[in-house]
Design goal:
This protein is mostly helical. The chain is built from three helices and two strands. The chain is 63% helix and 5% strand. The protein is rod-shaped and about 65 Å long.
Length: 113
Amino acid sequence: MESERDRVASILRAALDAALLEQDTASEAFDRILREIPSGLPHPDGVQRIKNASSAISAARHKMIEAMTRLREFENRGIVPEDLKRPNTPPPGFRPAHSRQTWALGRCRPVLA
C-alpha cells in the first residue's frame, strides 16, 4: 500500500513533469513562429502571434517554477501543500482530545501524543 508521503511525492512529481512538458511545448511553438518569418521582420498578425507565444512561455515557466517549488518544499522540508492534504485527517503526531467525529467537525484541539 502506498504511504501518504509516497502519494504526495507522486502527485508533485507528476505536476512537475506536466509543467516541464507544457514549458517545452510553448518554447517549441515560439521557436516555430520565429522560423516562419523569413525576413526576420514579422507582418502585423505575426507580431501578435509572437506576443501570444511569449505569453504562453511566461505562463508555462510560472507553472514550472511553482511545481518545482512545491516539490522542493515537500522533499526538503516535509511541507505538504494545502491542496494535497487529506480532508478531516489530523496532523501526524497529534491526537484529538475528543472523538474522531468531533475532530472532523473541527471542534477539538490537538494535543501532543
